[in-house]
Design goal:
heterodimer, A: mainly beta, five-stranded mixed β-sheet, four-stranded antiparallel β-sheet, 0% helix, globular, B: mainly beta
């Protein structure tokens, strides 16, 4: 089952794009890449997910490389309220130990500053 | 459409007491997951339930912890004879199907005195 690796921390200026990378070189064909974030001690918040095509929603964009070994979450115009821990997680929808079970790593602490 | 509801938000128990944490999934969701976040640590999966069935309890401590999701009513995470090490934030999530987006509640903060 895929493990993901992310940088421990990143900084971003308010109003600029935040690009958060994630490596998942052992991801299997039925594992989606999910992104969640946790603001302070709140419950994790779903952001976006994808399998192999790039995805965009009202919160963010997800760029997945063609070989699916890495991805980047893009927050196009970061605000102070985007300061949080961001988690990249591989989740299977068809079997394996990641089937229906989110495995949270250490994530990336994103700090947005004025 | 109401989100995942957890109660209580804060729970204080003395050592040896029982703690009951409740989780009502989003409307239309029949899959419930419990996660625990110990102080200064990451979120860890505990158990996954579908109505009346425990599907995966690989993350549950072997003793004192149990979970249920009855046909009617919320899912319950029960901790018997609590100890100080049980102090943590307990989060519940729900999804429409297994392997789909999981939406989280605000959590229950358990403090054991």
């Amino acid at each position: 089952d895929a493990k993901t690796t992310q940088p421990t921390s990143m900084d971003c200026a308010e109003g600029r794009a935040a690009n958060l990378p994630c490596n998942h070189s052992t991801i299997s064909g039925n594992e989606y890449v999910y992104w969640y974030r946790q603001i302070h001690s709140q419950g994790p918040q779903y952001i976006i997910h994808g399998l192999k095509n790039n995805e965009t929603n009202e919160m963010a964009s997800l760029i997945i490389t063609e070989d699916r070994k890495s991805s980047t979450l893009i927050l196009p115009h970061a605000t102070l309220r985007d300061t949080a821990v961001y988690y990249c997680i591989a989740l299977s929808n068809a079997g394996g130990t990641s089937y229906g079970k989110l495995t949270f790593g250490q994530g990336t602490i994103l700090t947005v500053h004025p | 459409n109401a989100g995942v509801m957890q109660n209580p938000r804060h729970l204080v128990r003395r050592r040896g007491q029982e703690a009951r944490l409740r989780c009502s999934p989003m409307k239309g969701h029949s899959h419930v997951y419990w996660y625990r976040q110990l102080p200064e640590e990451g979120l860890k999966f505990m158990v996954y339930l579908q109505k009346e069935n425990i599907i995966d309890e690989s993350g549950m401590p072997k003793e004192r912890f149990s979970a249920e999701f009855p046909k009617e009513g919320p899912s319950i995470l029960r901790i018997q004879q609590v100890v100080r090490g049980d102090s943590a934030a307990y989060f519940c999530a729900s999804s429409r199907d297994r392997g789909n987006i999981q939406y989280f509640g605000a959590g229950t903060r358990l403090s054991v005195l």
